[in-house]
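To illustrate the input format used throughout this study, we show a single complete record. The first block contains the structure-token representation of the backbone; no residue identities are included at this stage. The design step must infer an amino acid for every position from geometry alone.
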């Protein structure tokens, strides 16, 4: 293989919800709601292993890396009038695109950029409105994607990866295989936290790329508005921070991206 030639991943066991499986899901889940997706959690305290659901829901497994195809990703904002402490309570205002939020009580549509609760300092040094970025990852041998909710402290690194390693190489996220690991960092107060590290594994073969494209469309159309709750903001293990489990990134930590890069075409 030439030095600059990208590795083609032809052996990746890509399984999608299509054909007989899609029909089975439609029939068996009729009246039961949408197909539940497994959530993967980033640990607190600088841990280097993800918590991944196993065969037994009560006993999750640990994984030092997640390898798969990023089918879709999008920002999610949520605001609770009462301080969010984890649980299934629905937010008082939520957004599934990071741009427009909907007040649960009144149905009023609010602009996220100008909302006072979405400004740094509205909750101590952080935001009263909690921001995460949902990532749908299709792993080998499993047709149901994992859902990873990235906190603001990991967002810059996802941006850099997608912009430099994917888009500028002529690809989209669903056309390549990505590896996600964890790195221990410390914030300005000396509190350790875990942030995601993204690396390029290789590109899918044309046949598998086509299959991934169909699955990508399915996820975007059917599953972007999954309820917001504890799975998006809770971390594994104990937290040394007050308030919600989601880390309070300061403005420098969240917005440290090149000027003008905020509108990169991630989707």
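Output of the design step:
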């Amino acid at each position: 293989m030439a030095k600059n030639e990208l590795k083609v991943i032809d052996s990746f066991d890509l399984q999608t919800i299509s054909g007989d499986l899609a029909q089975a899901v439609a029939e068996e889940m009729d009246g039961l709601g949408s197909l539940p997706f497994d959530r993967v959690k980033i640990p607190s305290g600088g841990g280097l292993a993800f918590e991944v659901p196993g065969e037994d829901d009560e006993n999750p497994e640990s994984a030092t890396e997640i390898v798969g195809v990023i089918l879709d990703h999008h920002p999610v904002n949520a605001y609770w009038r009462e301080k969010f402490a984890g649980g299934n309570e629905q937010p008082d205002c939520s957004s599934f695109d990071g741009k427009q939020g909907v007040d649960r009580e009144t149905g009023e549509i609010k602009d996220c950029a100008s909302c006072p609760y979405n400004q740094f300092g509205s909750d101590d040094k952080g935001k009263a409105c909690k921001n995460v970025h949902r990532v749908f990852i299709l792993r080998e041998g499993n047709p149901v994607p994992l859902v990873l909710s990235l906190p603001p402290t990991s967002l810059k690194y996802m941006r850099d990866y997608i912009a430099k390693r994917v888009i500028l190489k002529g690809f989209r996220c669903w056309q390549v295989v990505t590896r996600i690991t964890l790195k221990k960092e410390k914030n300005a107060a000396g509190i350790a936290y875990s942030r995601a590290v993204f690396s390029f594994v290789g590109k899918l073969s044309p046949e598998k790329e086509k299959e991934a494209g169909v699955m990508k469309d399915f996820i975007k159309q059917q599953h972007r508005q999954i309820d917001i709750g504890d799975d998006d903001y809770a971390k594994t293990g104990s937290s040394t921070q007050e308030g919600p489990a989601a880390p309070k990134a300061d403005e420098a930590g969240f917005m440290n991206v090149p000027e003008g890069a905020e509108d990169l075409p991630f989707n």
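Structural context for interpreting the output: The helical segments are 19-28, 152-166, 206-222, 230-233, 251-255. The chain has five helices and twelve strands.
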